[in-house]
Every structure is written in structure tokens, then in C-alpha cells.
């Protein structure tokens, strides 16, 4: 469990990272993207997730689209970006609606192969920002696997499976407002124990730097 | 002038080629969807400029860049990547990348690249 000061420093760091993610998303959809302040949690196990977080992700019950990639070297784990499938489709439509993609065939309902390719690229870019920021903070190089897109049906019970004992899970609950679209999603970063300890150590260094 | 675009995203590959053709009408563009195909296309076509993604199936962009530079130390390779780590930028610069562009690719970035290519040709 983080102390209030650690929680505050982690939230501030992730605020900056989500700000960068908002910037790249704005470039992708060629529109202004407003950000709501993200909610950030570093959860140690399923029990802690039960107590502090699970009731907040009701919006991820049902059909969701997941973009994920694994990362490794000194800092290792898995990052997953989740949107309700309708919100994921809205995001893809906003991306492909830009005149950069005039030649791309559009599909009104459901995800076409092109939509899935676009979703993979959205996940790739946004997760690279979040994990890249972590790598830069920890001053360690990180290597990535290829991003994968999956369409899942999640029940409330399955939400628990996103939290594995032996891993810390960094959860960033983010909302992007693009035009009239409110796109609510979540990023889950499963960090192996050593990486989470490094992150906490770095946060403590930031606090010492700020408060002495 | 020959330009090779290597990116595993069909959506972005298509858009990049269209914008390059709009801004460099004299260019002939070739594309590849992964690193292995990218290297093979490079060796076959010997393009003047290569736009190369890093995270791809088969061979990574770093591996492709290394092979290209072993074959042709003067090759002009522009890296396109979502990776924001300073380590990655330093790594590909050390491998001999000519330019480094952060994804997402936008119209403005491709136009700027086209201007750089025009200036160098």
C-alpha cells in the first residue's frame, strides 16, 4: 500500500504521462483532445483490487477491445489498454475519419480488418507513451513485444483475473474527450515485483528531491 | 527517386505513400509490411530513402537498419516509431539512422519529411 505522498507523486507522474498520451492521440485524430484527470492505483494483489478498485470498472463489463504488449529487459511486465468495444470503435472512426486516410474503406458497424489494424496502432502508440515514460523515469531501456488486439467479453468475475498475485498492477483510469465523444478507458500495467520496487524507489527519490 | 516504406500497419503505410506521392510526384514508392520483407525489398530496389518502423514482426527495425548499413553505409534511413525512450533514439542514431520521427504519423510530419528529402536530393 502506498503512503498518501507516494500516491500523490505517482498520480502526478501519470498525469504527465497521460498528458503526453493525449497529445499523441490528438495528433492521431487531428482534433483537440480534452483530458479528465486520471485515477491512478498501484495494486498489490487481488484482495487489494477487490477493496479499492474493482467496483470502479463496471464500464468494462461486457464486450471490450483490448490492445496489449509485453515489455522486458530490466523493467518487465505487460501493458493492456481496454475500451468498451463501442468506445474503441468511436476512437477508430475518429482516426480513420481524418483525411489522411481518404483511401481506406470505412465500415459503419463492428470492427473490420482495417479497424483492427488502426486499433492496434492506437494501442501501440498510447502504450509506448505510458511504458516509455516509465522507462525514462526508471532510467532503464525497455524492449517491447508486438502489440496484439483482442475482443473479449468480460464479466465482473473476470475483472479479478487482471490482477495476478506476484505482480503489482498499475491502473490508470483515463477519459479522453474528443469533440462530442467521451471515450472512457483503462490502462493496466502488470509489473513484476522487482520493477514495482524500482518504481516505488524512484517515487521516493522524487519525494526526497521535492521535500528534502 | 526511390522511396521504401516499411511499416506493419497497412493503414499508416497506405497514408504515408499517398502523402509522399502528393509531395514528391517524381518518387517511386515501394512498401513492405515487416522487417524481413523490408530488407529484401531494400536489397532488390536499393531505394534512395527508406522510412522504417522499429517494432515489426520478423525482424525489428533496428536489425533491418543494421543490415542496411552493413550493406550500404551511406543509406539514408528515417526511423518512424512510437517508442519515446531516449535509449531507443540513441541506439538507432548510433546505428546510423538519418532522421528519427515519433509516431503518430501526421500529414504535417510527412510533408516535413518530403521537404527534407527534396533538400537532400
Structure, briefly:
The complex is a heterodimer of chains A (212) and B (121). With 212 residues, chain A is α+β, with helices and mostly antiparallel strands.
Structure write-up:
The complex is a heterodimer of chains A (212) and B (121). Chain A is an alpha+beta fold and 212 residues long. Chain A is 45% helix and 29% strand. In chain A, strands 1, 2, 3, 4, 5, 6, 7 and 8 form an 8-stranded antiparallel beta sheet that branches. In chain A, a hairpin with a 3-residue loop joins strand 3 (62-73) and strand 4 (77-84). The relative contact order of chain A is 0.23. The model of chain A has no long low-confidence stretch (mean pLDDT 86). With 121 residues, chain B is of the alpha/beta class. Chain B has one domain (2-114): Response regulator (Rossmann fold, 3-Layer(aba) Sandwich). In chain B, 49% of the residues lie in helices and 21% in strands. In chain B, helix 3 links the parallel strand 3 (49-53) and strand 4 (76-81). The model of chain B has no long low-confidence stretch (mean pLDDT 94). Chain A binds chain B through residues 20, 24, 27-28, 30, 96, 99-104, 114, 117-118, 120-121, 124-125, 128-129, 132-133, 135-136, 140-142, 144, 146-147, and chain B through 8-12, 14-15, 18-19, 55-57, 81-88, 91, 102-104, 106-107.
Strand order of the largest sheet of chain B: 2-1-3-4-5
Oligomer: heterodimer
Q: State the end-to-end CA separation of chain B.
A: 8 Å
Q: Supply the CATH class of chain B.
A: Alpha Beta
CATH top level of chain A is Alpha Beta
Overall structural domain count of chain B: 1
Uncertain ranges of chain B: none
Into how many domains do the coordinates of chain A divide?
1
The percentage helix of chain A is 40-55%
Helix-and-strand structural type of chain A: alpha+beta
- Which fold name is given in CATH as the topology of chain B? Rossmann fold
User: From the coordinates shown, what is the CATH architecture of chain A?
Assistant: 3-Layer(aba) Sandwich
What's the story with the biggest beta sheet of chain A?
8 strands, antiparallel
Structural class of the helix and strand makeup of chain B? alpha/beta
What is the strand content of chain A? 25-35%
Q: From the alpha-carbon coordinates, what is the Rg of chain A to the nearest angstrom?
A: 17 Å
Overall geometry of chain A: globular
Give me the count of strands of chain B: 5
Low-pLDDT sequence parts of chain A: none
Mean pLDDT of chain B: 94
Amino acid at each position: 500500500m502506498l503512503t498518501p505522498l507516494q500516491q500523490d507523486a505517482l498520480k502526478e507522474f501519470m498525469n504527465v504521462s497521460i498528458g503526453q498520451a493525449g497529445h499523441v492521440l490528438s495528433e492521431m485524430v487531428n482534433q483537440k483532445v480534452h483530458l479528465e484527470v486520471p485515477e491512478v492505483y498501484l495494486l498489490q494483489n487481488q484482495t487489494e483490487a477487490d477493496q479499492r478498485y474493482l467496483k470502479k470498472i463496471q464500464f468494462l463489463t461486457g464486450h471490450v477491445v483490448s490492445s496489449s504488449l509485453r515489455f522486458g529487459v530490466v523493467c518487465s511486465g505487460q501493458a493492456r489498454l481496454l475500451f468498451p468495444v463501442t468506445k474503441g470503435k468511436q476512437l477508430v472512426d475518429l482516426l480513420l475519419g481524418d483525411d489522411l486516410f481518404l483511401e481506406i474503406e470505412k465500415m459503419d458497424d463492428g470492427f473490420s480488418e482495417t479497424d483492427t489494424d488502426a486499433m492496434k496502432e492506437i494501442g501501440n502508440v498510447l502504450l509506448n507513451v505510458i511504458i516509455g515514460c516509465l522507462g525514462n523515469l526508471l532510467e532503464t531501456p525497455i524492449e517491447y513485444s508486438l502489440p496484439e488486439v483482442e475482443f473479449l467479453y468480460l464479466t465482473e468475475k473476470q475483472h479479478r483475473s487482471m490482477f495476478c498475485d506476484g505482480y503489482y498492477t498499475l491502473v490508470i483510469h483515463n477519459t479522453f474527450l474528443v469533440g462530442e465523444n467521451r471515450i472512457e478507458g483503462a490502462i493496466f500495467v502488470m509489473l513484476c515485483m522487482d520493477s514495482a520496487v524500482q518504481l516505488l524507489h524512484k517515487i521516493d527519490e522524487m519525494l526526497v528531491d521535492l521535500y528534502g | 527517386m526511390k522511396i521504401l516504406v516499411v511499416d506493419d500497419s497497412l493503414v499508416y503505410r497506405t497514408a504515408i505513400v499517398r502523402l509522399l506521392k502528393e509531395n514528391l510526384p517524381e518518387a517511386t514508392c515501394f512498401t513492405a509490411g515487416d522487417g524481413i520483407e523490408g530488407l529484401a525489398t531494400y536489397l532488390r530496389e536499393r531505394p534512395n530513402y527508406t522510412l522504417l518502423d522499429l517494432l515489426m514482426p520478423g525482424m525489428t527495425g533496428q536489425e533491418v537498419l543494421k543490415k542496411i548499413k552493413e550493406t550500404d553505409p551511406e543509406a539514408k534511413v528515417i526511423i518512424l516509431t512510437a517508442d519515446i525512450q531516449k535509449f531507443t533514439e540513441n541506439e538507432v542514431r548510433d546505428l546510423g539512422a538519418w532522421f528519427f520521427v515519433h509516431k503518430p504519423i501526421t500529414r504535417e510530419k510527412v510533408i516535413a519529411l518530403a521537404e527534407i528529402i527534396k533538400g537532400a536530393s
